[in-house]
């Protein structure tokens, strides 16, 4: 997927003995090949992080002004990315000042488009000491961006926001006391809805099993074990970690499952307590019409007790229980 970068700005947030200080960068940076690569890398790395939370803008725009700054940026033509990022830096500075655990760094802002959806990515990147070779085959110190090590990042899906969708802001959770200021900088309301989160996780696990090309027995086993793991967290009222889930559920290659669950387009909250009522869909199918309802376990398909004819859109049940058979025979004999 290609990221079409529209605008980029980089500013600095530094912590001093007298508080935080902002240094503003250039108004509108050129989208060079290096800049494209850096933003692409940050987008990819952010997408792979499993520990993310999702939500929407908080109602109180006076306390959390990012929404109104973003609205002004999008509604005024020509759009003013400089004003947007300067105002957001003021908010970031203010929120950082309230939290003792907050740190500074290079703050990257990128407005980009991908698959006809527009996003604003904000990442705080620090530098680290490395080494490079000299022309006479010696080594020397060199400082460079620590692309893999960023702890503060968020993404606003501006298209989803404009469409009135329920979740369009995501950010790295990290340690609560550390990441809280970044969440408040974004103005994100992350009200947890455990049942909805569980239902979305269930759908993501079923999609993953299908995309991996699992045969029916393997898929049944995978989803049944997922249900067991999630039910354990639900019973203990413990938050479910996607990393722990992937390591237990797919120990041979947990990275593939973690990457799937971390996809920011899915908006899956990491660290919620599963709702047992929504877990049944991992191992059960159910449906109803005004005249009948049906529910059966996934292994009924594996055993051949339930056969679905896709062409005729019909379902055939075999091995009916004796009490149901007796009722049906009595009904049909009466009619005969």
From TrEMBL:
Pfam families (alphabetical): NA37
Gene responsible for this protein: yejK
Main localization of the protein described in the UniProt heading: cytoplasm
Family statement: Belongs to the YejK family.
Localization, UniProt: Cytoplasm
UniProtKB keywords: Cytoplasm, Plasmid
Protein name: Nucleoid-associated protein YejK
Cytoplasm listed as a keyword: yes
Coiled coil: none
GO cellular component: cytoplasm; nucleoid
């Amino acid at each position: 997927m290609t990221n079409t970068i529209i605008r980029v700005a980089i500013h600095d947030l530094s912590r001093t003995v007298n508080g935080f200080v902002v240094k503003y960068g250039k108004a509108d940076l050129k989208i060079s090949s290096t800049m494209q690569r850096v933003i692409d890398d940050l987008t990819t790395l952010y997408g792979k992080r499993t520990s993310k939370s999702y939500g929407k803008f908080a109602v109180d725009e006076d306390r959390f002004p990012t929404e109104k700054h973003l609205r002004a940026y999008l509604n005024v033509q020509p759009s003013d990315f400089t004003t947007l990022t300067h105002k957001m830096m003021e908010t970031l500075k203010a929120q950082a000042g309230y939290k003792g655990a907050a740190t500074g760094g290079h703050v990257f802002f990128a407005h980009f488009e991908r698959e006809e959806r527009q996003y604003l990515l904000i990442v705080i990147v620090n530098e680290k000491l490395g080494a490079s070779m000299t022309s006479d085959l010696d080594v020397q110190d060199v400082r460079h961006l620590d692309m893999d090590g960023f702890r503060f990042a968020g993404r606003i899906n501006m298209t989803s926001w404009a469409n009135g969708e329920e979740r369009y802001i995501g950010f790295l959770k990290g340690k609560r006391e550390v990441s809280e200021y970044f969440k408040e900088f974004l103005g994100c309301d992350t009200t947890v809805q455990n049942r909805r989160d569980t239902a979305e996780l269930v759908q993501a696990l079923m999609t993953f099993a299908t995309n991996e090309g699992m045969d029916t027995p393997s898929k049944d086993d995978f989803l049944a074990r997922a249900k067991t793991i999630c039910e354990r967290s639900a019973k203990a009222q413990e938050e479910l970690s996607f990393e722990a889930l992937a390591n237990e559920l797919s120990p041979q290659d947990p990275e593939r499952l973690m990457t799937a669950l971390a996809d920011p387009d899915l908006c899956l909250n990491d660290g919620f307590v599963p709702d047992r009522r929504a877990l049944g869909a991992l191992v059960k199918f159910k449906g109803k019409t005004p005249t009948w309802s049906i529910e059966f376990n996934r292994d009924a398909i594996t055993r051949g007790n339930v056969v679905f004819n896709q062409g005729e859109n019909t379902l055939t049940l075999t091995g009916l229980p004796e009490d149901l058979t007796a009722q049906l025979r009595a009904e049909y004999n009466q009619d005969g």
